[in-house]
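Propose amino acids for all 353 sites.
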């Protein structure tokens, strides 16, 4: 088995930090490049490495001894990759960069610039993302697909009952959940807008936001303008994400651009039908009318219509939910993704000399 050093940083999103924890093998070490308190403070399994002036890249200088003892350096964000570049400067080590989604073009160009000697490789969550990287010149043999890993929700009925009781939901209430991290492009304001429009036709529809992020305050402010803010729940302080997924009846993903598939994979594994805009990563994971109802990006009215359909058509909702759960077991199960990652490590480990 390859010896792996995992590196996270302040720009590592919570869902990617969760992936690092899920996929780290026995004996692997997870370190943080610089001041990553936002993601590592609750985590005793993550060791912070000081970075001079708070610069993640410079913390790589203090990681050289750790890197020398590893076969593969697995980084979980662009800043973590920058630290790994410093940590491996005087040695030959395989470095793997895992991206939860493809960043905007300018950021992606900066990440790819100068990385592709024979030691570096990238994982992306879907085949469509891999194809896009290959089209802009990334070497195809250094690109790998690593789907997000999920675990089943244990005691889901009990969790559902507990959360719905705490939120004072009636049995007939239809709870939407928007589980993506609250980043600028993840569309949570559009989700609130769709909820408000659906509320006109469905008095029983409710909405939960179970995650946080840099856009949270902006979303909270917008929700207050919809007139239905008392029926929208920000739950991350009270409940873990699996609890809210168990309590929900459908999931909503109105991303303005690709924002990663970890939240969608978790919703599918929880057996939730989804309504989403037609971003390539979402469509790759949950094809239209098979595991989700997709509508053109930016069309809130069409997404609202799909929400109303799911609430009104129980047979459709059950079919999509069953298909979603089956696809999640096939593509996103933790044992399967771990096996895939071990194969990637095996391809990279011979780079060591």
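Proposal:
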């Amino acid at each position: 088995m390859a010896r792996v050093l995992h590196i996270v940083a302040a720009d590592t999103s919570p869902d990617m930090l969760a992936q690092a924890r899920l996929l780290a093998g026995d004996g692997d070490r997870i370190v943080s490049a610089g001041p990553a308190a936002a993601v590592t403070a609750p985590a005793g399994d993550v060791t912070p490495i000081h970075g001079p002036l708070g610069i993640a890249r410079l913390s790589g200088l203090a990681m050289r001894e750790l890197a020398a003892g590893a076969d593969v350096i697995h980084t979980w964000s662009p800043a973590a990759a920058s630290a790994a570049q410093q940590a491996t400067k005087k040695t030959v080590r395989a470095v793997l960069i895992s991206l939860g989604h493809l960043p905007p073009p300018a950021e992606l160009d900066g990440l790819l610039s100068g990385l592709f000697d024979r030691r570096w490789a990238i994982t992306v969550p879907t085949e469509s993302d891999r194809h896009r990287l290959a089209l802009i010149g990334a070497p195809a043999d250094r690109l790998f697909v690593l789907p997000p890993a999920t675990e089943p929700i244990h005691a889901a009925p009990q969790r559902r009952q507990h959360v719905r009781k705490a939120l004072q939901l009636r049995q007939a209430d239809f709870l939407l959940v928007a589980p993506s991290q609250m980043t600028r492009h993840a569309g949570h304001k559009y989700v609130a807008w769709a909820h408000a429009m659906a509320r006109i036709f469905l008095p029983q529809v409710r909405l939960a936001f179970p995650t946080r992020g840099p856009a949270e305050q902006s979303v909270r402010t917008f929700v207050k303008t919809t007139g239905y803010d008392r029926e929208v729940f920000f739950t991350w302080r009270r409940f873990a994400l699996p609890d809210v997924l168990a309590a929900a009846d459908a999931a909503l993903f109105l991303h303005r651009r690709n924002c990663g598939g970890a939240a969608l994979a978790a919703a599918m594994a929880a057996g939730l039908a989804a309504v989403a805009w037609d971003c390539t990563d979402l469509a790759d994971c949950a094809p239209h009318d098979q595991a989700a109802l997709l509508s053109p990006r930016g069309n809130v009215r069409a997404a609202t219509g799909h929400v109303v359909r799911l609430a009104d058509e129980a047979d459709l909702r059950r079919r999509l939910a069953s298909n979603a759960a089956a696809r999640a077991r096939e593509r996103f199960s933790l044992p399967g993704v771990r096996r895939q990652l071990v194969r990637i490590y095996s391809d990279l480990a011979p780079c060591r000399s």
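Residues 37-42 have pLDDT under 50 and may be disordered. The chain has two domains: 4-149+333-348, 156-331.
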